Fold each of these.
Amino acid sequence: MMTIKTSRVFSIIFVVLTILLLSACSKKPTPPPPSLPQWTILGYFDGNNDQDKKIVSGKTFSYVIKDVQEMEKVGSTQDVQIVVMLGSFKTKGNCNYYFIEKCLGDCDSTDSISSKVLDSLGIKDMSNPQNLRDFIKYGVEHYPAQHYVLIINDHGDGWRGVCSDSINGDQSLMTLPELSFALSGYKFDIIVFDAPSMSMVEVAYQLKDKANYLVLSQYRDFRRNILCFGMWLQDLTISPNMSVRSLAREITQTTYTTAVDQGIAVNISAIGLSQVDALISKIADFGSLLGVTLTGDYWKEVVDARKILSHLPIYFFDLKNFCQNIQTSDSLDSAIKNAAQAVENANDVVVVKTLSSDSGYGGLSIHFPYISGDFDSARYVELDFAVSNWHIFLSRFIQAYAEVHTGSLQILTYPVEGARIFLDGQDTGLETNTTIHGIPEGDHTIKVVKTGYKEEVRSSVYIIAGSTKVLIIHLYPLSPLRESISELQ
């Protein structure tokens, strides 16, 4: 039989449960957190140098400001946020953060930006990696998204670096290790380089953990790798759900199409970084085999395979083109040809899409100098790419080239000796009469200078490999008046 005390306990429990149930029923459901925008585009636009000048009808405009104005024709949307850090000779080196908004009027009639200024930074050296790092941090924290694209817009010189600043800096480039520091802790879906010569295996390997895709150009020519911001941004705002890979390919295609329509030579590639390790492994095997196996005249086969392509610096060569030329050699053995084929195959996996006005481009270049003056080995080995030991092969190749493809020049002056010798504009530290060895085959310029005598220059002095050319130069004394003027100068 239930006691009164027990009955009271059950009553209390019933009342409590009823209150809790009513409370739960009356409580409004918690709404799901708002979804993040699909994309944030971060643009690091460094125009703090003398290359940021476009002259139209006698007026001087800023390239980077024109690029932003092209972005303003599209503007940010709910799914695509565009934030830019910009400095220019037009701003006298002062830098701002901008939130790019759609321009409703005549967007490019003036040399100014109509979008909202988020922060006025004052004088900033845009070659300083800390300033890039600060901008990335600001953009990610204030404009979070599901996907991120970073655009770097300025000078580029391949593995040597990107972004110079002659207004607030010392004109030196931000090196690849410095760029890696600026990006550390972040991984972008796409990094786009609106900068020359950046499509190199050295760059791809350095940034393999910093992005999923790169979009960049092999060309050294400034402004031939125009990125047509308006076209691909418009496509992205219309289809913000497109995949990362599709966007990388879209940027590549629209850049190429627009350049061709404008009659501009162009080269642009989309590089997938997930398989870069495999490519570098094949390059390491290939370089090691070349360096160990080849001796004597066989080095000539390697030299002949280095076909100089237009728009590439003389010390950068297309990787795929080189490997294909190695495979067509009649003298090299099958092991070397198979290694070259393996590199070519790995290159084709990494290069998602490549388009070029000229034939012979496979999407990625590699550093391949033939003289020691173009090989800064101390800086080169600081790259992550040093794991490939390509620098060891280059050292052997340069030495072999000097033995096989260089000649000598004996320079004699009369009626006096002791004239200082300049070779291709560089002071050799030597004086006549003497012989200079190890000069690469081809045309060279010789200048001799001696106090009291007229400076003498000889251009197109052709050196033949394996032989010594004799150059005899008559020195003419300066008149007393000319000598006095020369001394004053």
Note: DSSP finds 14 helices and 20 strands in the chain.
Amino acid sequence: MGKSQRLYQEAKRIIPGGTQLLSKRPEMFLPEKWPAYYKKAKGVDVWDLDDKKYIDMSLMGVGSCILGYAHNVVNQAVLRAIENGNMTTLNCYEEVELAKKLLKLHPWAEMVRFSRTGGEACAIGIRIGRAFAKKDKVAFCGYHGWHDWYLSANLADNSNLDGQLLPGLEPLGVPRALKRTSLPFHYGQIDELKALVSQNKNEIGVIIMEVCRHKKIDVDFLKAVKTIAKEISAVLVFDEVSSGFRVTTGGMHLLYGVNPDMAIFGKALGNGYPISAIIGTRKVMESAQNTFISSTYWTERIGFVAGLETIKIFEEENVPRHLVQIGGYIRDGLIQIFEKYSLNIEIAGLPSVPILAIKEEEPLVVKTILTQEMLKKGFLASNIIYISLAHTKAIADKYLEAAEDVFGKIARSIKKGDLKKLLKGPVCHAGFKRLT
């Protein structure tokens, strides 16, 4: 074990769950061997506690560092903000500037509220939507965070979130009174939403959904959902925490002319600095004043400064075009590898976030071996690749060369029927599990 692995063993004894984010648990990648902690990061390079350098071809800060790690221009703007005071009794003017910028990018919207994370931004959106509609129930499609309103879906059926987030999530600690207040429907299945509306009469006040995540965007579906929302006087919320700024500067919905009542952004907005935003029409957003939504660190300066600088770079360097081009290049390269070795693996996800949908007989074993073998070659790799501005064609070529070697080894082992012999440790986790 290296320093990172030893530290993680200690962390599991004093931090419930080992880490603050399920997606960063080493068990989700390579149990017992994943370099859990970093000392330094720059561009696409990450150094662990033993000073081993890896090229990140996986989550890139769980999709937050869309320009690459420690981007010089963003960092310099943040450092200036720190030197001038990141928090005072007064408000920072940058929050108004960022609000104006987001509204300029999204002409349909008229007002903005800010927070720091995607999950809490979704919770704020739900609160505002319920306040406006004066109806309690929420219909949702996709992953929208960890808060009570969302996890309560599993009070009625502990598999309700299986197709939305992760299998096996227990709603312990969520009040039983919230049972059947959050109702799931699946992407592309408009009949499911129609059934929810029929079954719940006039009780649905908010419909929240991801514009796109794993599947190809379905514009007709989005339009049909919007029509239903209007018919039942429900607030339509597009959760673009993951999709925002991945294919265009702003929300993905802008490309298709389907405007919601509210949209939510996070992750990529601040290139690793915490900032999230809820934008919406004036008539809906004004309802925020009729309820209580307030937090000290939503006024902290760094997130606003980072957001402004990140958007500026997006516009100056046409970042979305680069993300889509590199993502497409890697996608095509992987498809050629899978076809060459007759592997049952498909590519899903956004053009700038290729997702390896492993459909072999033992997908978790394949994923674990992929991560294990790529780590030996100096890559942080998994079944998801968040492309950043720092990913170049040369880096993509280096990754594809290594990936071809690894997938070739996997294919040969599958053919011989001894795939598990390649494993050097436990198989990675697929969902939520207790660690101790």
Note: Residues 72-317 form a domain with the Aspartate Aminotransferase; domain 2 fold (CATH 3.40.640.10).
Amino acid sequence: MLDGKKVLVTGGTGSMGKTLVHRLLAGEMGVPEKIIVLSRDEAKQHAMRMAYQHQHITTDEAIFRNFMNVLEFRIGDVRDPASVASALRDADVVINAAALKQVPTCEYFPEQAVLTNCIGARNIVQAIEQGGYPVETVVGVSTDKACKPVNVMGMTKAIQERIFIAANVLNPRTRFICVRYGNVLASRGSVIPLFHDQIRNGGPVTLTDPGMTRFLLSLNDAVDTVFEALRSARPGETYVPRAPAATVANLAKALIGKRRVETRITGIRPGEKMHEIMVSEEEAHHCVQRGAYFAIRAMLPELNAAGADEPNALDREFCSADTVLDLPGTIKLLERHGLLEIGQAESAAEELLR
């Protein structure tokens, strides 16, 4: 599908962006002519470049060869219309993974979240409109926090979704679509690296609220969602994985295992929900199932003609409280993704039998 295409990844040095770029280089979606990583952090770009330069010694030679011939790094910022327009000029497909995503940070600096998450999306749409660039597809990477948002991060991501969806009306040559998913396991700034660090230092492991639930996906699950949307999403649709959820208490128990590590309740942080929602009750009325994913169809009537005969997949919201794994299920999920340190899976399982 991406054979011979030029793919622009904004925020390509982030956790999800790096996994996405690696899999694009592996040729899963075809071999692109060019993969352009646009980000503002030269240190992360340098680290990523050096990692690929040394990778051919121990891993897939094809990925190294593609890196040498295909991958291009550009310093720039989605907030800056000029750098966005310059990068878009050479792109067939755009994946917008640039974001301010830390909930407390966005609460304290809401204007910064608006600039990256909202104005950045507008800059992409505006560059395509004003430059007349023949971009085929734009994928906006969103979050479950955009659904019935209560925090700045979610609010700005909800606006980003609407900016991209509405762009289909005035830019019919380009397909604008979105993906929305929950917490990405072991991504930068997420809870699992924090718990691992706290455990290694002897505790305490800090829990906001033991009953809090979160949808959980791996970095590869997140990329799978982007790839499936690229393959199948119609203009204005938002793809949502049918993901499991877990309580933060079970996450902590699974990671601690037999260790004598104290847990401490710290209370919900500014802007946090007890439970996340991936598809709202209102969206459920125009949500269809496509394999392992839900597709939320656009509410705009101009975009709703195709697929109108597909039956609704949900009769209520899709909430993390509805799909909660028990402790053994949480252990298996973490083990499957290699996130339990040696012996932790066994020790946690033994604790259950006591």
Note: The first strand starts at residue 6 and ends at 10.
Amino acid sequence: MDGNVGIALLLTVIAGLSTGIGSGIAYFIKRPKIVYLAFALGLSAGVMVYISFMEMLPDALETLGEGWGLLVFFVGIGVMGLIDLLVPEPENPHNYEDLDEPTAAHGSHKLMRTGLFTALAIGIHNFPEGLATFAAALSDVKLGAFIAIAIAIHNVPEGIAVSVPIFYATKDKNKAFLYSFLSGVSEPAGALLGYLVLMSFLTPAVLAGTLAFVAGVMIYISLDELLPTAHRYGHGHLVISGVVLGMLIMALSLLML
């Protein structure tokens, strides 16, 4: 398991800093259209839901027992819900209304504030996602890789959400990219904290509890963040096709492990 630590941290870095891809899109596309990512967001949700219910949660229940395993699972959902409650609604990373080109009615000060608060909100959300990727990869590198890919996909529009308002407020693409990039740094920070905290007393029960908690986090992200955003910017059938394909890919991949 110790040999997986470096790989787990690397996967988390890749997933978190994929917000920079969103910034790169904002560099070259005048009006970013998230509709093209609707299928990918559905795919990401399908991967997360399938992994959570078919792989991570069952493993946790087997080690902890149903009572404790389910309790930790719902605690994970509750923690993400609490984070959402603490983040101001206009700057919540679920709300991507500002991804289209801002109009003249938006003042530069308001745009800058929106971008900065969005960066902060996304940073808060990315912290437990980093722990999720790290804990999964620590248990199973291939499983962690799938989670990292799924999280990286949905970090792309988050990067756009940060960079676009800051760019239109400052006219500085480098500053827009920097803030978006920094919002993703909290993901490897979450992994690093998880390493420092967990590794000192890591037992099969602690790892199982972490996986149950992470499963709850990923279910919340899928249902409250990925799917609503995907439906907002894409056709329903396109989104559900992505969800089903994501589940199918995971099912076939796990069968071949």
Note: The first helix runs from residue 4 to 16.
